[in-house]
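Lesson 9: reading folded outputs for more than one chain in a single document. The general rule is that every protein is listed as its sequence immediately followed by its structure tokens, and records are never interleaved. Here is the first one.
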Amino acid sequence: MSLIIFLIIGLIAGALASYIMGRKQELLIYLLIGVVGAVVGGFIAGLIGIGAGGIIGQIIIATLGAILCLWVWRRVR
């Protein structure tokens, strides 16, 4: 996957996760949340054995990872 597609998926996932969790952020924060969520979600999906097929699957996994990251951030903070 190219870096540009990865960043676009991260941006979409970060925006979706922030919307679901009820947080309004700036564009750069959406991107950071989504990229971290994509890494975390991909790692967890790999441990469980779930494959993300296609762009939609990757966005879903990244969004779930970003939601998990935001949830943990709220609990720690």
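And here is the second record, again sequence then tokens.
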Amino acid sequence: MILLLISQIIQDEYIIRFKDSSSKKKFLNAHKDIVKKEVYGLSAIVVKTNDISKIQKSSNILYVQNAINFRINFTPNDTYYRSYQWNAYVSYLDKAWNIATGSQSIGIAVVDQGVDYQHPDLALQFDPSNKGYDFIENDNDPLADNNTTTDIHGTHVAGIISASMNNSLGIAGVGNFRLYSYRVCDVNGNCSDYNVASGIIMASKNPNVRIINLSLGSSSPSNVVKEAIDTAIKYNKILVAAAGNDGGFVNYPAAYDSVIAVGAWDTTSKKASFSSFGKELDIMAPGVWILSTIPSNLQATNSCGNGEVLNGYACLSGTSMAAPFISGVIGLILSINPNLNFNQVKEILCSTAEDVESSGFDDRTGCGLVNVYRAVIKAQPTQ
């Protein structure tokens, strides 16, 4: 952890610096009711008041200032964070962590393939009594099939959102959240619309879930999925979906107005060539060579082109990786201000994004590249 500091005003607290100790003593005697403490080694005191103007100005006072809160600059100690997680820097997530690192009171549903909830970097994020549901096997155990290399997508998505942070292991997810896995896709990545709809509706009825991540899509709309999304909106859930990887129009369900559609940004500071686009696109997030969790018994060779053999981690690319990044960012926003609704969250994301191509909204990059730091700053409740 690097010990750098940032500042923030402390509400209704002020420091009064006097020219000498006798002036300070007189003030202490006259204003005992608002004095909070003395500043060691200086002729200065801290007062707590909602109206500093009532303090009589005196030539014996050198200055009056707001009290400022300094905080340690948080840098996670996860093994691969510095060498692999470029996405944290380009989005200013690393700076945002000084303000918020998430809360397990915020539940995020991964509607996808199963998740290896036994993975050492994910296990603490799951509720032992309710991990989600498996609509492929129709049981309460949404565990990924750890015996096949084709059932890694859900685990990868889950790690991007909320791999355990600062545990000296693997990677750091966007934040610390409660994860729920709704397995609607089989080991080959096929996700029937009726299973997807079922997963959305079950996640919507989970009172602990605030955000539903949909790293899946189709060029064709589905009535049953649209009805499920409408149900989620009635339950005040925020839905996030991958825009698509065919370089064409935004896929469904991302194309629906009530879903935040996410495109992929690459390592060369431009829209990924595969990332779908159109007027339905809302925002961009890192989506190329993203390191995240895969079932812990699997191994990735030369992942991310670094020549390193990784156990339980791999790099994948796609809007499927960009969408969970935004789901995690929304989790950070809600951990600061849980009363925000879909429209308010979308406005925060859009108004704070980096304008990366044409001025204002454009159909290639939406509102621009997410700036997590600006978003969490804007999300803070007004005093």
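What the second record shows: Residues 81-379 form a domain with the Rossmann fold fold (CATH 3.40.50.200).
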